[in-house]
TrEMBL record:
Family as reported in the entry's similarity comment: Belongs to the cyclic nucleotide phosphodiesterase class-III family.
Domain Calcineurin-like phosphoesterase: 10-199
Gene of this entry: cpdA
EC class (word): hydrolase
Domain of life, source organism: Bacteria
InterPro entries: Calcineurin-like_PHP (IPR004843), CNP_phosphodiesterase-III (IPR050884), GpdQ/CpdA-like (IPR026575), Metallo-depent_PP-like (IPR029052)
Protein known as: 3',5'-cyclic-AMP phosphodiesterase
Annotated SUPFAM superfamilies: Metallo-dependent phosphatases (SSF56300)
Keyword Cytoplasm: no
Top-level taxonomy: Bacteria, Pseudomonadati, Pseudomonadota, Gammaproteobacteria, Oceanospirillales
Alphabetical keyword list: Hydrolase, Iron, Metal-binding
Length: 268
């Protein structure tokens, strides 16, 4: 458990699906992912001067190399706030843990005066879809039971609700019904946050805010039957979590930069 000092507002930044490679010029669908991530981090610096923590919500690396995770660590160190990571379907857990050793990156429960953030692993090694294991669901349940006084944000990589894209909805959290049943028992769950889908969405379901966030590299076209790459720019999400449980959030994207994308590729 990581204790986070914050004021009445807990200010978070989420970046996701960085898909970094060992080589600095490594790319995904033609886009150089280290470059695009650094462009996103530049606008984070311009727009968010007071950050309590940064969340990196899976698919940190495309090739699973130590150097890819080191690129991420090095890029975020100058922000001088805690940074928390967890696995996506493309990540190598062993290599990720090796690079994160001795840092705060892999803490799964973060608590401040008014909020707790619970970070779960939805990776199924060797698969593209996700699942929340018994151990992960038990960790979540325990955190919710321990601190019913804290508003709670839960985050993992895969999407727990349909996105309206046929191909994407085949590769979400396979046991989302178990997850949804669990959180329905606790009135302190305020937000569920994920990556994986490379697009933004914002829904309110039974009093809980469900949010997805653009990738720092290539975006996927919403409401598409088959794999399709969008033309919109990389971006990030900011979240201001208020002491009364309210959530202010928004998406910001890179402007004025042309990124090279190979639209002929039909998968990633």
């Amino acid at each position: 458990m990581y204790s986070l000092e914050s004021g009445n507002t807990l200010r978070l930044v989420q970046i996701t699906d960085t898909h970094l490679n060992g080589p600095e010029d490594g790319h995904l669908l033609g886009m150089k992912t280290l470059h695009s991530m650094n462009c996103v981090l530049d606008i984070v610096r311009e727009e968010r001067s007071d950050i309590d923590a940064i969340l990196v919500t899976g698919d940190l690396s495309q090739d699973g190399t130590e150097q890819a995770y080191q690129h991420l660590h090095n890029a975020l160190t100058p922000f001088e706030c805690p940074v928390f990571w967890f696995e996506g379907n493309h990540d190598n857990p062993q290599t990720m843990r090796s690079v994160a050793a001795g840092t705060e990156h892999l803490n799964q429960i973060i608590r401040s005066e008014h909020w707790q953030v619970v970070l779960l692993n939805s990776q199924v090694e060797g698969a593209v879809y996700g699942r929340l294991s018994v151990a992960q669901l038990e960790l979540l349940e325990q955190a919710l039971q321990e601190r019913p006084d804290l508003h709670t944000l839960i985050s993992f990589h895969h999407h727990p609700i349909p996105m309206g894209s046929t191909w994407i909805d085949r590769i979400g959290v396979k046991n989302s019904d178990e997850f949804m049943s669990l959180i329905a028992r606790f009135g302190n769950v305020k937000c569920v946050l994920w990556g994986h889908v490379h697009q933004e969405s914002d829904q309110m379901i039974n009093g809980v805010r469900f949010l997805s966030t653009p990738s720092t590299c290539v975006q996927f076209t919403p409401n598409s039957e088959d794999f399709s790459v969008d033309t919109v720019a990389p971006g990030y999400r900011w979240l201001d979590l208020q002491q009364d449980g309210a959530i202010d959030t928004g998406i910001s994207r890179v402007e004025g930069i042309e990124f090279e994308i190979d639209y002929s590729v039909k998968g990633y």
